[in-house]
């Protein structure tokens, strides 16, 4: 479908114009909203697999962008917080992102930008609802030990 191909192409362009660090921008933004967040909560909010999140956070920690510390009462769980270097990187990434967005949407007038934002918002809401419904169904199957057809 042409529309899906165009969206894929736009996503690819956005990712690479952001230096391939759009995920870091998103995580640093989430962390900057609060003093600290549990790694589990961050993983759930970001919609990332736990193993992938651990790998991403390890790389960010090695670069000095975040700090992890064991949560009191649970040696296996960690809290995550953004460092001063992470806040500085967040500012730089946001500036790069704003500059890239200005260039990416320069061909559109303000009415077209508003229209595009409305349409993309509708799509994002719909996709999120579908993903949430699918996740709820998957949780139900796991809790029930599989789907009804499999048990019959």
How would you characterize the overall build of this protein?
There is one protein chain. By secondary structure, this protein is mostly helical. The chain contains seven helices and three strands. α2 (22-32) packs across α5. Residues 148-152 have low confidence and may be disordered.
Helix content: over 70%
Please tell me the overall pLDDT. Answer: 85
The major sheet is characterized as: 3 strands, antiparallel
- The total of beta strands comes to 3
| Shape call | flat
Spans where pLDDT lies below 50 across 5 or more residues: 148-152
Count of individual helical segments: 7
Structural class: mainly alpha
Order of helices and strands: HHEHHEEHHH
What is the strand content? 5-15%
Radius of gyration: 19 Å
Strand order of the largest sheet: 1-3-2
Termini Cα gap: 38 Å
Summary of the model, kept short:
This protein is mainly α and 152 residues long.
Topology (SSEs and partners):
Elements: H1 2-17, H2 22-32, E1 37-38, H3 39-46, H4 50-62, E2 66-71, E3 74-82, H5 84-104, H6 110-144, H7 148-151
Antiparallel strand pairs: 1-3, 2-3
């Amino acid at each position: 479908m042409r529309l899906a191909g165009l969206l894929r192409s736009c996503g690819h362009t956005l990712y690479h114009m952001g230096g391939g660090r759009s995920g870091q921008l998103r995580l640093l933004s989430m962390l900057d909203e609060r003093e600290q967040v549990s790694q589990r909560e961050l993983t759930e909010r970001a919609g990332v697999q736990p193993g992938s999140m651990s790998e991403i956070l390890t790389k960010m920690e090695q670069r000095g962008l975040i700090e992890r510390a064991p949560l009191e009462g649970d040696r296996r769980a960690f809290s995550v917080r953004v460092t001063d270097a992470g806040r500085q990187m967040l500012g730089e990434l946001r500036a790069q992102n704003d500059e890239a967005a200005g260039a990416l949407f320069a061909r559109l007038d303000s009415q077209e930008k508003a229209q595009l934002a409305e349409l993309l918002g509708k799509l994002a809401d719909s996709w999120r609802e579908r993903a949430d419904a699918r996740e709820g169904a998957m949780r139900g199957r796991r809790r029930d030990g599989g789907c009804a057809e499999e048990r019959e």
